[in-house]
Design brief:
By secondary structure, this protein is α/β, with parallel strands linked by helices. The protein folds into 3 domains: about 5-85, Orthogonal Bundle (Arc Repressor Mutant, subunit A); about 90-160 and about 270-290, D-Maltodextrin-Binding Protein, domain 2; about 165-260, 3-Layer(aba) Sandwich (D-Maltodextrin-Binding Protein, domain 2), CATH 3.40.190. About 45% of the residues lie in helices and about 20% in strands. Strands 1, 2, 3, 4, 5, 6, 7, 8 and 9 form a 9-stranded mixed sheet that branches. α1 (about 5-15) crosses α4 and α5 packs across α12 (about 275-285). The N and C termini lie far apart (about 60 Å).
Length: about 290
Amino acid sequence: MAIKIEMLRAFCAVAQSGNLAEAAGRLGRTQSALSMTLKQLEAHLGQRLFMTDRKNRLTALGAYVYDLAQEELGRFDAMVAAIEARAQAPQGLLRIAAVPSVAARAFPGLSAEIAARFPGVELELRDMESGAVVEAVTRGQVEIGIATAGWQVRGATQEPLFADAFGLICARAHPLAQQANDPDVAQVLEAGLIWTALCEGIEAEGFDGARGKARLVAHNTLTLMAMLRAGKLVSVLPQSVAAIDGRELVFRPIAGLEARRMVHLLVRDEVGEVDYVMAAADVLRRQAGTFTKA
């Protein structure tokens, strides 16, 4: 017997709910049918997935299977949604993923121009961190990606789109924003640094121990923006991030810090000659000069 996608979906539903009754209700199945599915999965694996019959605690294998199954179900559901969307789009489907600092600036104008020029094309937009953008491009989940990628991405044409400098980003009322001279790395660290994934790419004297001095780690752009606007903490980010909220946040160079981020445009090879894909790529190239302006 092979493991089927619905077996994994049933297992994940029970693992999330902690009991058969709630999971059965979510899936629209009977408890007995759900229990049988789990028994078949465990029999195939030759090990238990739950510690007890109450289904409220996973075994070590169960936790491992749950993590992998969640990832696979997400990919499967995304694939089904993409297939259905493409089938329903009268002239095609254009999917674009970009890092948040670019998405906020690029997507409004891009969507308006594509809608005007290709009214039958459905546009699907996503913002995500660079690693996820690259993965979406390589897996064929998007036609165009905008990301920081210092390596050649398989199956895609890659070109530099723009570069922006790393510097201090903080609320306009913050003391480091008000002082006459550019702050140095030591002052930034003393002010209370919010660490992000983008900070990982900074190589500069005095910044190598910054991770250990960070007071907070932010993995989400909305959370990061809210914390910076609150005025007490600061971060070191590319200049285009400040442009997302130029009214409340300010960008300042950091003395002695010359690190820059290079952002690339990625277009999947097999769709690179499609008219609306080429048009979207051209719009993004034209917009690139505005991404670091407040």
